[in-house]
Every structure is written in C-alpha cells, then in structure tokens.
C-alpha cells in the first residue's frame, strides 16, 4: 500500500450522527494517510455530505472522535491546512457582484487573520491559484457570468489558494460532461502526485473515479469497505450488492486516454498548469 | 469637540448628511448581497420605539433629563437586530417573517408610548421624516461617534463580512467565526440605522441604505465597485437633496430620498442606453 508509513491526516473513531431521530451515520471508523487519494462512494442520501460536514466541524458528531492532523476537530484551528469544495458551492447567488479574484481571495481570509489586509504576496498566491485551474483570463470577470464548469474551477482555486495539505471535494463533477470529468480527475491526480496533497473525493459515481484514486471507501450509513483500490476491485461486486442492493455494473472504463483530444478547449474543469 | 461647536446649524446638518451618505451605502452593499435590505425597514421602526422610550424617560425622570433619545434608539435597534437574527433561526424556512414581526412590534410599542408622552407633533415629525435643521450639537456628536465606530468595524472586518456574505459554510471552514462576525454585523446595522434617524428619519432610513447600492449594482462587476459607486451615489443624493430642499423650501429628508430615486432612474436609463459590456474591457460579439 502506498505511503504505508505516512502519518494520518484524518482519524475517525466510532462516529455516529443523526438528524433528530433519523440515524444517518453509524459507528464509522476510518483513517486517511498523508498523500493518499481517497474516493468516498455511496448512493444518494447515504450520508456522504453529512460525513464531510462532521470532518469540517460544521456539524458535531453525537458519538465518537474525529482528529485532524492529530488534534480533535472541536479544538482544531488550523483551517488553512484544509481546503473544501462543497456540494452546493455552485448554488451561490449568481447575481453576487464579485470577480473571480475576489472569490478566490476568500480562500486566504482565514489564513491572513483578523485586522490584517491582503499583501502583495497574498495577491501573488491568488493569481497563482487562478492560474493553476486555468482561469487566468477570467480573473476580473464577474463570477455569475461564468459557466457552471468554470465556476467549479474557481471554487477549486479558492480551496487551493491557502495551500492546503488536505483537499475535500464533495461531488465536484455533478452536472459536468464526461470528457470534462476526466480532465478534472487528471488535474486532481496531478495535485496528488506532484504536490502530495491528500485528497478526499466524494462521489456517487464510482465509474470514472476508480482509476484515479489510491483508496476507496464505501459508505451507506455504515462504512462497508475501506482499503486500497486493488482490494476494492477484488471485492467490488460484493460491495456493490451490499451498498446498492444490486450490482450496479459500473460502465467499464477501460477505454484508453488516447482517443481523447486534450487540446480541445472544452468548457471544462481540467488541466493543472504549474 | 471644539470644531463641532463652531459650525452653524446648516453646516452641522450638511456634515451629518455627508457622514450618513458615506456609510449607509457601505452597509447597504452587504445587506444587498445577503438579500436582507428589508431589514432596515424593520429596524428603523424598532429604533423609533427606543427613541420614544428615551423621550418618555426624559419627561418622567430627572436622572435621564439630559440623555439624547438617539442613544436609547441605538439600544433598541441593537436589541431588534439581534432579535431578528434569532427569529431567522427559529423560522428557518420562513426567514422573511422576522421583519414584519419586529416591525409591527416596534410600531405598536411606539404608538402606545407616543400617546403617553406629552410631546408636540413637530418633534415626532423630525424623527419620522428627518430634518437636518434640528441636528443639534449632541446629535452631531452621536452621528460622528456611531459613524467612526461603523467605519472601524467595516474596515477591520471587511474580509470576513464579505466571505460570510458570499458563502457562510465556506467562511466557516476557512476558520472565520461566523457567529462572532454575524453579531458584529447586527451591531453594524443598528449603528447605521440609528445614526441616520435625525437626518432622513425613520420612514426614509431604508432609502439611503438601498437606493445608492441599487443604482451601483447595475454597473458593478466586483464588490469593490458596488462600494465605490454606492458611496458616490449616496453622497450625490445627500448633497442634491440638501441643496434642492434649501432652494425649494421643502423637507430635506424627503428631498434626499427623491434625489436618490432620480439617480436610480438615471442609472437604469444609462444602463439601458449603453451597449452591453460598455464597462468591461472585452469586446462584445
Ligand atoms: N439538514 C438536514 N436535516 C435533516 N436531514 C438531513 C439534512 N441533511 C441531510 N439529511 C438527510 O440525511 C441523509 C444523508 O444526507 P446526505 O449526507 O446529504 O447524503 P449524500 O451526500 O450521501 O447524498 C439523507 O437521508 C438526508 O435526507
Ligand atoms: Mg451529498
């Protein structure tokens, strides 16, 4: 297993959570090592977003412990080490008068701190993050005027600008066409390989994701599986049946990359530039 | 505050107006993007409750005889502002309910207290529609203090206020304390509402908060633009209102709002006449 000696960035022990009487997560245990690329899959309503909110301290677990970089989430303060792209990032008020630059700058605000202003070096970082997702020519454009895919890139840049060690993406590719999804996953893989950023990618579509990640976790109220990708492939059918009730035979993704024209400028999410 | 004492009553009014014309659009911009501009209507009526309470206290107790009712107005506005925040959480799915609840409570209480207080119509008129001619030295001091405090809050917490207005969840995960900043924002609204009371009056306070940014948003690409244009339009409305009311011999508060409306209509007309993308550098196809 890759990075088997790397320290844990995330440890979840016996975590349960319910909304009122409805139990959504039950006795979850999970560890994520630095440098891994974890795909978290599960059907709609299986509690994935809720789980991410617990990790980020947006919701509080009823039972159990969550540790980020070795400290309990309740007392964790170093939020700039974690980047987050929410499932509903795209549902902001599209009339909001903010430029791409202003939105990406928000990713640095927690790091810059109270009573302080953006300095030259911060502005440089913001421009770099915008470049990283290939949006530099839209820097001073109004965010509401961009396409859904472009907006998604901006939100990734906002999450990347604080140079996080852990990046959490909740269904970032919903509503993005299949070709763009591959470009997007290529970009994530590069972040993982070159910058050693730990990634947690939440998705209900196990297909395209499975050839990019190093580890897989299957969630449906309980954690049905968590391990490296090869073990997952071996147990795949069993897992799918347990989770979805039947074997959703995921579209085989053995078509190779070569027929895919990367030079084509889609309105897409792909392409890390560094 | 030597300098304030040397001002004539007209100069005092103009100074107060300019301060308000500067600050109202700043807070208006944040309310606009949070879709909360209507809050100014609810709070102004609660402020009236505080002011009537202050007037009553002045009349009934020697201890309070020298308190400017604007301060009790500010306290009421702050209480109302926090209550609205609370109500919005209670009625999570019907957040707009908070405003009519607070507004009617404010008007009801004010009406009761006004009927008890033995104060002439003209004083209430000044609070309802504003009157720069009645801006006293103590009023100007109040406006100056609340104005400086508001500017400090906006200046120091600009980043946090903007981030929370855009995406509360993300702001929270970037390490911003949403609860604390929202409290500051409630305080800010209360400060700005109560400072405008004497110049534009309870019924017109919302106008200076809303009209300049409503005109600004027609042209703005960035949040910064909304603030800059908002201030320009706000000051233009105040100056235009004061000057025209002086020559036409009509109510200043009303004239400031009318000027604001004219600016808004003018802005909409300019926007309509100019080709799309006139203010951005790129070519339109
Ligand atoms: N704010 C909420 N209040 C009550 N129930 C909720 C709330 N958010 C989600 N749920 C419920 O919790 C379950 C899990 O939701 P969620 O975590 O969003 O799943 P997923 O992201 O896997 O689609 C669903 O049954 C959903 O209806
Ligand atoms: Mg979800």
TrEMBL record, chain A:
InterPro entries: AAA+_ATPase, ABC_transporter-like_ATP-bd, ABC_transporter-like_CS, Metal_Ion_Import_ABC, P-loop_NTPase. CDD domains: ABC_Metallic_Cations (cd03235). Keywords: ATP-binding, Nucleotide-binding, Transport. Residues 255-274 are annotated as: Disordered. Pfam families: ABC_tran (PF00005). The keyword Coiled coil does not apply. GO terms for molecular function: ATP binding; ATP hydrolysis activity. It comes from the Bacteria. Residues 10-246 form the ABC transporter domain. Gene3D superfamilies: P-loop containing nucleotide triphosphate hydrolases. Belongs to the ABC transporter superfamily. This is Zinc ABC transporter ATP-binding protein.
Automatic annotation (TrEMBL), chain B:
It comes from the Bacteria. It is found in: Cell membrane; Membrane. The keyword Transport applies. GO terms for cellular component: ATP-binding cassette (ABC) transporter complex. Keywords: Membrane, Transmembrane, Transmembrane helix, Transport. One of its GO terms (biological process) is transmembrane transport. The keyword rRNA-binding does not apply. SUPFAM superfamilies: ABC transporter involved in vitamin B12 uptake, BtuC. Belongs to the ABC-3 integral membrane protein family. This is Metal ABC transporter permease. It comes from Alkalicoccus saliphilus.
């Amino acid at each position: 297993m890759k990075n088997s000696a790397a320290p844990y960035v995330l440890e979840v022990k016996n975590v349960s959570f319910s909304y009122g009487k409805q139990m959504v997560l039950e006795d979850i245990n999970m560890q994520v090592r630095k440098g891994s690329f974890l795909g978290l899959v599960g059907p709609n309503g299986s509690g994935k977003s809720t789980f991410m909110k617990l990790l980020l301290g947006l919701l509080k677990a009823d039972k159990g412990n969550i540790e980020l970089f070795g400290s309990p989430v309740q007392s964790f303060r170093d939020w700039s080490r974690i980047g987050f792209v929410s499932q509903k990032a795209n549902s902001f008020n599209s009339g909001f008068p903010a430029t791409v630059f202003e939105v990406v700058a928000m990713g640095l605000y927690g790091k810059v701190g109270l009573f302080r202003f953006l300095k030259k070096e911060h502005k440089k970082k913001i421009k770099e993050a915008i470049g990283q997702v290939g949006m530099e020519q839209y820097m001073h454009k109004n965010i509401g005027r961009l396409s859904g895919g472009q907006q998604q890139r901006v939100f990734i840049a906002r999450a990347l600008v604080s140079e996080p060690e852990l990046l959490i993406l909740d269904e970032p590719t919903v509503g993005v066409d299949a070709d763009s999804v591959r470009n997007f996953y290529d970009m994530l893989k590069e972040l993982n390989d070159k910058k050693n950023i730990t990634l947690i990618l939440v998705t209900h579509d196990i297909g395209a994701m499975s050839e990019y990640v190093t580890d897989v976790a299957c969630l449906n109220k309980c954690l049905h599986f968590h391990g490296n990708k090869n073990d997952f492939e071996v147990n795949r059918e069993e897992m799918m049946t347990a989770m979805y009730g039947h074997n959703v035979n995921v579209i085989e993704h053995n078509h190779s990359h070569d027929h895919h024209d990367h030079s084509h400028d889609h309105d897409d999410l792909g392409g890390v530039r560094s | 505050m030597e300098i304030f004492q040397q001002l004539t009553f007209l100069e005092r009014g103009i100074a107060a107006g300019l301060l308000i014309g500067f600050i109202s659009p700043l807070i208006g911009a944040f309310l606009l993007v949070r879709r909360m501009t209507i809050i100014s209507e609810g709070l102004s009526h609660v402020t009236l409750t505080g002011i009537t309470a202050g007037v009553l206290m002045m009349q009934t107790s020697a201890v309070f005889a020298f308190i400017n009712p604007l301060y009790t107005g500010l306290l009421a506005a702050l209480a109302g502002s926090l209550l609205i925040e609370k109500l919005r959480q209670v009625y999570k799915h019907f957040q707009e309910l908070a405003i009519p609840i607070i507004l009617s409570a404010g008007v009801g209480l004010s009406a009761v207290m006004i009927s008890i207080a033995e104060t002439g119509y003209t004083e209430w008129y000044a609070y309802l529609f504003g009157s720069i001619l009645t801006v006293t030295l103590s009023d100007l001091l109040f406006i100056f203090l609340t104005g400086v405090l508001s500017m400090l809050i906006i200046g120091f917490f600009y980043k946090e206020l903007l981030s929370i207005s855009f995406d509360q969840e993300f702001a929270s995960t970037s390490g911003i304390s949403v609860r604390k900043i929202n409290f500051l924002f409630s305080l800010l609204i209360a400060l700005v509402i109560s400072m405008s009371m004497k110049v534009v009056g309870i019924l017109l306070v919302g106008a200076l908060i809303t009209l300049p940014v409503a005109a600004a948003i027609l042209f703005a690409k960035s949040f910064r633009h909304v603030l800059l244009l908002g201030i320009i339009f706000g000051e233009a409305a105040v100056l235009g209102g004061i000057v025209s009311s002086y020559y036409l011999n009509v109510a200043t508060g009303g004239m400031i709002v009318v000027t604001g409306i004219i600016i808004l209509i003018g802005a909409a007309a300019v926007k309509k006449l100019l080709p799309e993308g006139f203010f951005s550098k790129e070519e339109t196809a």
